[in-house]
Amino acid sequence: MKIALLKENKNEYRVSLVPADVKKLADNKHTVTFTKQIGINAGFDDEQYIKAGAKLVKNNKTCINGADFVFKLSSLTPSEIKLIKQNQIIISFFNMSNHPKVLFNLLKNKNTSLALDAINEEGLYPAVIPNEQIKGKFSVILSTYYLSKFNKDSLGKFFSNVNYSQDATNFVIVHASYAGLEAARTALAIGSNVIMLENNDDLIKQVQEDKGLVELAKLNHNHFKILKASFNDLTKYIANADVLINTNSLPNSSTQKRITIQMIQSMKKGTVYINLASDQGPASDTEKKIATINKPIYLSNGVIHFNIDNIPSLFSNTASTITSNIISRYILENIHNSNDAWKVIENNDVLLKAVMTYGGNLTNPVVADTLHLEYKPIKGLIK
Question: 100-108: long-range contacts at Cβ-Cβ below 8 A with a sequence spacing of 24 or more?
Answer without folding.
Answer: 100/371, 102/75, 102/76, 103/356, 103/357, 103/362, 103/367, 103/371, 105/76, 105/78, 105/81, 106/76, 106/81, 106/356, 106/357, 107/357, 107/360, 107/361, 107/362, 108/360
